[in-house]
Amino acid sequence: MAVVRAYGALRAGYGEERMTTGPENTGREHGGRFAPGVSGNPAGRPRGARHKTTLAALVLLEDEADKLTRKAVDLALAGDVTALRLCLDRLVPPCREAPITLDLPRLETRADAPRVLSFLLAQVSRGELTPGEAEKLARLVSEYHKAVQLTEIEERMRRLEEALAAAGGPG
Fold it and tell me: Is residue 152 within 8 Å of residue 128, measured between CB atoms?
């Protein structure tokens, strides 16, 4: 029966345990594997760290980037569909959202918000807006409503403080 050393444990045959070596606090199970949820490197790779191979490739390509870019453009202009797709993907990134053109009702006071929300619902029901677009616009209306409400509360507090001061109250 052959004895195999693997990951700090001595095992015999088909995973049958013989004995373990190393400290007890390694986070490994008896078979030498890490226990679920436990890593040999809890901190992980630092953000932005690149693999050695990637760094080597970047160094090799650094001096040739202009030539490679020119070659890709030349191939694209010559009709190479793959090169054309590569160039267009870099020049014109995919559009995540399209602009929405609507004649929204005026939104000047908090009292206007329900009318605008009703308008958005009608647009969705007619198929002129997607539910997702309407939801985003409704959030904008809600934020506007909160801002107007806060401004109104501040104005009321200012008037109350002035009235209190005029009446000779604390302040």
Answer: no
The pLDDT tens digits for 128-146 are 999 999 999 999 999 999 9
Indicate the angle between helix axes 131-166 and 113-125, nearest 10 degrees: 180
Output the pLDDT for position 108.
Answer: 87
Reported pTM: 0.43
Q: Where are the domains of the chain?
A: 1-35, 52-91, 110-166
- Sign for the CA dihedral angle at 3, 4, 5, 6 comes to negative
pLDDT of residue 100: 82
Q: Is residue 20's pLDDT more than 60? A: no
